[in-house]
Amino acid sequence: MASHKGPGAPQKHEGSSLRIAIIHARWNTRIVSSLVSATRSALLTAGVSAANIITESVPGSYELPFACQKVIAASQIQASSLANIAGSITAGMAGLGSATQDLLGGGESSSDLTKLGQEGPAPPQHAVGEKDDETAKGDKQQPSSQPFDAVIAVGVLIKGETMHFEYIADAVSHGLMRVQLDTGVPVVFGLLTVLTEEQGMARAGMIGGHNHGEDWGNAAVELGNKRRGWAEGRFS
Ligand code: DLZ
């Protein structure tokens, strides 16, 4: 009998303009690796550039909400400091242009220093020998420094004999929800809360079955796009 679980028929969303972070715990590493790998493949399939997928790890799932919050903030700091540097360079070039113009008596050619470096062939996208699998397949995009459009938190909690599982599962799910509502950046809930290792392996596609990482990658691309549209007053 066909299953009614899951997000239904996959919607197609374009990921080439997105920058996405995967933050994963290292507990239950084998299962986590399989989930992260499917998450990453789904992002690449949707067109997200390998250069724009940033992966960070933390010891366990309990650390995920804090890491997501800080990584989102770090990307926003990175974007604004680069914008400031670019602004200073442009202002400096403009100043230099007028100074040179004064020195040389206002000649037209010397005033346009801001155009320096824009002529001639574009610089190579990758140094020789730096190609990874995705670039070899045609991924030629430069890494972006825009803030993350979405973050995917991945962890596997396996119930033990104590109350640890309940406390961590509860804290992490509430924490991740809080991070996305506080920051306005979608945080995809890639946390498996399972009773046995076998259940975890099944949900990571390791013993047959569907790998949930694929859904998480797709959810990040969909929410990254929709969030941008909603922020600009557009609906799909
Ligand atoms: C302590 C602990 C336990 C018992 N189980 C798991 C687990 O199944 N999955 C997981 O991701 N992390 C586990 N941890 C570690 C905590 O998440 C956390 O890393 C530590 O308590 C340190 O804060």
Automatic annotation (TrEMBL):
Gene3D superfamilies documented for this protein: Lumazine/riboflavin synthase
UniProt KW Transferase keyword: yes
Keywords per UniProt: Riboflavin biosynthesis, Transferase
Pathway in which this enzyme or protein is active: Cofactor biosynthesis; riboflavin biosynthesis; riboflavin from 2-hydroxy-3-oxobutyl phosphate and 5-amino-6-(D-ribitylamino)uracil: step 1/2
Disordered: region residues: 107-145
Domain of life, source organism: Eukaryota
GO BP, sorted A to Z: riboflavin biosynthetic process
Biased composition (Basic and acidic residues): 128-140
Xref: Pfam families: DMRL_synthase (PF00885)
MF-aspect GO terms: 6,7-dimethyl-8-ribityllumazine synthase activity
Catalyses which reaction(s): (2S)-2-hydroxy-3-oxobutyl phosphate + 5-amino-6-(D-ribitylamino)uracil = 6,7-dimethyl-8-(1-D-ribityl)lumazine + phosphate + 2 H2O + H(+)
Keyword field contains Transferase: yes
Gene Ontology CC terms: mitochondrial intermembrane space; riboflavin synthase complex
EC number per UniProt: 2.5.1.78
Family according to the record: Belongs to the DMRL synthase family.
HAMAP family according to UniProt: Lumazine_synth
Described purpose of this protein according to its UniProt entry: Catalyzes the formation of 6,7-dimethyl-8-ribityllumazine by condensation of 5-amino-6-(D-ribitylamino)uracil with 3,4-dihydroxy-2-butanone 4-phosphate. This is the penultimate step in the biosynthesis of riboflavin.
Name assigned to this protein: 6,7-dimethyl-8-ribityllumazine synthase
Species assigned in the record: Endocarpon pusillum (strain Z07020 / HMAS-L-300199)
Lineage start: Eukaryota, Fungi, Dikarya, Ascomycota, Pezizomycotina
